[in-house]
Design goal:
Rossmann fold, alpha/beta, Fumarate Reductase Iron-sulfur Protein, Chain B, domain 2, 13 strands, binds iron/sulfur cluster
């Protein structure tokens, strides 16, 4: 089993500035989300509706994809199919070259991060410029995003000022760490790129089968610039992003902004259907991306992960994420959703992530599409490489606990044999195979006298 997460988490836990930045940011968004969600009397019904729509999409995905393709082509878009990230990257690079460009501007997109489009473009001699403020910060710092919605959540504003001054050639010499000044510096820097870009790359929050439309919701307006100004638009869309009808959007447009940024409505919602003469890009390409999604669909419990609308509410309430941050997960999708999606999208890798959870259930409570993340975590633990060992250990524990005499003897033996490893009332490190447990947990020392012994003594 991979042990990347426990090691990376240990490093992150030793970084007090990181923990302070994370606690502040997640705490703020958490509070805002809770307040705006509580404003809607039908919040739970909306969650049920969203969950039902997504389950329906998963049941009818092939038909819905064909309907989407037909309607998008009819509206003037060109639709491409990509089995994996490499194929999607190749198609996007070819379209960029055919458009006579050697660079693209990008709307924030998790799908393009998942397939490492920027790295692929660089290897092919093309440039991909992030235009979302937080993505720009991460790109300038040559870092990796650490949160789905707020990729630069691990930086505070002083650190961001230093990144701009060190890496952004046109940053003002007297730049301060005032948020407005930082945003203005980024705005001026990006405007030049928007005005010269011939090609843009986006993802999509939703793809509507009934009309062949794509939807992007965002907060800064950079997405709107990318979607309307360049002559060629390439949208890379995971196949699970489909919604059957335009009416379904009503449910998700109430849930997504409230769950992600804690706003009643996000400032910019862009919906486009193919291309329109004299309005927006002349050439619109849609790349429908599988990259492991149909394999996830085959798992009746695990497929819930495909309902995710990437709001990141589960990250913001997760006690593990809040302490380790996103980099420790080693995947573009961190936090609770990453713990169930990453091992399924890349089988054989990230097998430690389903264990990166206390199973407290906070993620399930806030998820706007009601993904039962703890259920999937337990399912992945049982079916993962560690499942057989865990099952055997639990079976043995059950057999002992079901026999009072055996249980008492086991406690006495545990007390006796744990002596060499006890410190201040806890067993902190056992030899193998007990080390599997104590590597991340302290074990309480069984008391000298069990409750049953005490009861026997005092009952008389
Ligand atoms: S799993 Fe649910 S809460 Fe987490 S990002 Fe996805 S939709 Fe949001």
């Amino acid at each position: 089993m991979s042990t990347a997460f426990p090691k990376a988490a240990k490093v992150a836990l030793g970084m007090p500035q990181l923990r302070s930045n994370l606690a502040h940011a997640t705490g703020t968004i958490r509070g805002k989300r809770a307040a705006v969600a509580a404003e809607l009397d039908d919040w739970e019904q909306l969650r049920d509706a969203a969950s039902a729509v997504k389950a329906d999409v998963q049941r009818h995905l092939p038909e819905l994809l064909e309907t989407f393709e037909r309607n998008a082509i009819e509206a003037g878009a060109k639709v491409h199919w990509a089995r994996d990230g490499a194929e999607a990257n190749r198609i996007a690079a070819r379209i960029t070259r055919e458009a006579g460009a050697d660079e693209v501007v990008k709307v924030k997109s998790m799908a393009t991060q998942e397939i490492e489009l920027n790295e692929h473009f660089e290897a092919e001699g093309l440039a991909a410029w992030e235009t979302d403020l937080a993505e720009l910060i991460v790109q300038l710092a040559e870092d990796r995003p650490s949160h789905i919605l707020v990729p630069a959540i691990h930086y505070n504003r002083t650190e961001i000022r230093d990144i701009f001054k060190g890496r952004m050639k046109d940053a003002p010499a007297d730049l301060t760490d005032d948020p407005a000044a930082l945003a203005e510096a980024a705005r001026r820097h990006l405007r030049r790129r928007f005005l010269s870009a011939k090609v843009a790359v986006s993802g999509a929050n939703f793809a509507i089968a009934e009309t062949g439309s794509l939807v992007v919701v965002e907060s800064e307006g950079n997405g709107r610039m990318c979607l309307t100004m360049p002559e060629t638009l390439i949208s890379i869309v995971g196949v699970e992003k489909l919604l059957p009808s335009f009416d379904d959007l009503e449910v998700f447009m109430q849930l997504l902004p409230r769950s992600s940024t804690g706003e009643r409505m996000n400032p910019y919602s862009s919906i486009w259907t193919g291309r329109a003469e004299g309005d927006g890009p002349k050439d619109v390409h849609i790349i429908l991306l599988d990259n492991g999604r149909t394999d996830v669909l085959a798992d009746e419990v695990g497929r819930q992960a495909l309902s995710c609308i990437r709001c990141s509410a589960c990250l913001n309430v997760c006690p593990v994420y809040e302490r380790t941050g996103g980099h420790a997960y080693g995947h573009v999708y961190p936090g609770p959703i990453g713990a169930i999606l990453a091992p399924q999208l890349e089988p054989g890798r990230h097998d430690d992530l389903p264990y990166a959870s206390s199973l407290c259930g906070a993620c399930y409570e806030v998820c706007p599409v009601k993904i039962n993340i703890p259920e999937v975590l337990v399912h992945l633990r049982q079916t993962g490489p560690h499942g057989a060992g865990e099952k055997a250990a639990m079976g043995a524990a059950q057999a002992v606990m079901a026999r009072p005499g055996l249980w008492r003897a086991a406690l006495r033996a545990a007390r006796f044999f744990s002596r060499p490893w006890r410190r201040r009332g806890y067993v902190r490190r056992l030899p193998f195979p007990g080390s599997k447990w104590t590597v991340s947990r302290d074990l309480g020392v069984p008391p000298k006298e069990s409750f049953r012994d005490w009861w026997k003594e005092h009952e008389r």
